[in-house]
Design a protein that fits this description.
Shape: globular
Strand content: 15-25%
Bound molecules: flavin-adenine dinucleotide
Number of strands: 26
Largest sheet: 7 strands, mixed
Distance between the termini: 20 Å
Length: about 500
Amino acid sequence: MIDRSAHMAVIGAGPVGLAVAKALLENGIPYEQLEGDDDLGGNWYHGVYETAHIISSRKTTEYADFPMPADFPDFPSAQQMLEYLNSYAETFRLREHIQFKTKVVMCLPSRQMGAPLDARENGQPASPSSWGSDKTLDVGRWTLDSQRRWEVELADGEKRIYKGVIVCSGHHWDKRFPTYPGEFTGDYIHSKDYKNPQQLIGKRVLVIGGGNSACDVASEAARVGRSSDLSLRRGYWFLPKVLFGVPIPELVPSWVPVWVQRVFLKLALRIAVGKYEDYGLPKPTHRIFEAHPTLNSEILHYVKHGRIRPRPDVAKFEGRRVVFKDGSSDEFDMVVCGTGFNLSFPFLPNGLVPVEGKNALLYAGCTLPDYKNLYIVGTPQVRYGFGPLITPAAALLCRLISLQDQMELPIGLVLKESGAKLPTTHLVDPHKALRQMRYAKYTLPLLLRKERKLRRRLASRQESDGSRQMSGNTAGDLQRVSHELKIF
Ligand SMILES: Cc1cc2nc3c(=O)[nH]c(=O)nc-3n(C[C@H](O)[C@H](O)[C@H](O)COP(=O)(O)OP(=O)(O)OC[C@H]3O[C@@H](n4cnc5c(N)ncnc54)[C@H](O)[C@@H]3O)c2cc1C
């Protein structure tokens, strides 16, 4: 086991990991950044199709402290995004702290070095790889590391111990496929597997889904394919990328309440677009922003030109034939599932991060009540771009880390006991989130006092339970309390 316990491990060097790394450097928090790929940039390096342009605008995507070049367009291309991320990393000297081709396969709370384990481990110190095929974690059977460090195992089998782990592994990679009766015998891919228009040339393409990637692929197929059909299970708000000459994410000032934004957008759309039913598209049954918005200026254009044919949900596959729920059917050469992604953390024990749908149940957006020194960053889906939010969020994360250093209980538990609420959705209103972060600057220091009170409460609860007397707030006593509460 290689001892790196003076350092935090940052998993991932995509846009979120880079912002976190910069904040850690600025705050003097030692870290190592572990990136599975051979270069930085995450999705903008390996994960998007060649012809992608951001849907969030330049101003609502750039890092708050690093503007994109003035000669970039309002909606930069994937190549420009990568150039920008590289320039961010060069400017703040982040690259030298990144270990490339270093994929993390497992992270586990560290046991006390050399601590005895129960019979199931035959008294031998368990390796992280011994966590069992169901990847469940039973911390109760270990003598926990009093410093609450984390064991990290890499793809090449190397094992390291870190002070803690900051997970920035992204949420646009674990492909979600729909399930329909029957089998489609043509090309069946996920939008994540779509890389360039050559894949679509001359093909009869059916795209399933109405999100941003789905609409980009359907529009591309309208240009180069033999035909392009778009299957929608429900109505979507298709917003043009630009309204009145302004990128739509920049149209409404941040202080305007969401309900006013909704009224304004609805009115503007009615004038600029009309009714979706007039395009043969289903009427949205949700309010704008209740689902991640689809920003696409091409889809309605191609529908009106007969280059994209709206279709209802798929009922079944019969070889190359797809039968739709309205009883119609057609043959296709390729089905592209633009059906989104699961939120998952394959290198963490199952269930360690509770996830409901796409919503990770984390306090302050990044902490768990049961574990110290584990931070999960970047899981929410921000309504526009990542930059304006991740910059202050990374600074706040550094404050949480330094506060945690002054606490014995997990900061997630202190937040929970202080009344912090779990998110009810993965969708984030950027303006509200920014307000909350500004407010948190003033309230975070109060957590230290709350932690002391909580420790006293836990100690007296243990006393009144008639179990062993607390002899002060020693680490050992707290470890016992923590253990009973299954806190790591
Ligand atoms: C087609 C498409 C269009 C998009 N358009 C926009 C847009 O317009 N605006 C916007 O803001 N966002 C957009 N996004 C979302 C995009 O995911 C974010 O912009 C951004 O890339 C998220 O950054 P991240 O660092 O959280 O994740 P990622 O970019 O996914 O980076 C995660 C990094 O972690 C690494 N990693 C993962 N697991 C491990 C492991 N076990 N060990 C080591 N390294 C690991 C990965 O290799 C990767 O480099 C789009 C996404 C897609 C797919």
